[in-house]
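Action item from last week, closing it out:
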Amino acid sequence: MKKANTFPEHWSPPQRPIDYAESALINAILTGTFPPGSALPGERELSAHLGITRPTLREVLARLARDGWLVIQQGKPTRINNPWREGGLNVLAGIVRHAPDLPASFIPNLLEVRLALAPAYARAAIGCNPGAVSDFLEGSESLPDEPPVFAAFDWRLHYSLTVFSGNPVYTLILNGFAGLYEQMACQYFTYPAARRASHLFYARLTEAAHQSDAAAAEIITRHAMAESIDLWRSMNGNAETSDVTR
């Protein structure tokens, strides 16, 4: 007989102390509680404040040091790095998980990076695997006109293009902000103009894939990515680059 499910429908296991502490410290760094260049409190004080053991705290600090959030020096206070200047891909993933604390300029900056990368991986994908790109895009013209559908499809498209490109570094970079991508895209695609622009992009990219025209794919993608930045800025008060990287 099948065992009954005794857990509530939306139940999730409690966060482990090490994960809670890591999240709390990242949040404190991003919000300026521990600004770049400052020193963390001592182990005793910090572990008591976080409600964790000192061995757990040391493991958390080792994780954050590995990822570039801070620097541990024997016999000296632990120093906070500037994550925007001294972090790497793992820092990007940590920043993305704390989206409510991101500066307004972060999304436009991220879209600028996509503008730099997407034309290259689209060209490579159609150069290496035009059939796979064409197969993926089949049916894109009949996507339901719903923001979550467009958001999910757009993420899968860019992810697939990085895979089809044959360069796994593109995929690793894109995966660094996977959660934020769909969250941002759901907001972006609430605007009919954004859905219309992406429909046109998918159609043009499909034609380039059918013709195995990698050069055209690059041009089409560059135009679409630039247009998405303009649309995002017009929808969100024309957010400008701030001084977060200083």
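Closing note: Confidence is low (pLDDT under 50) at residues 241-246.
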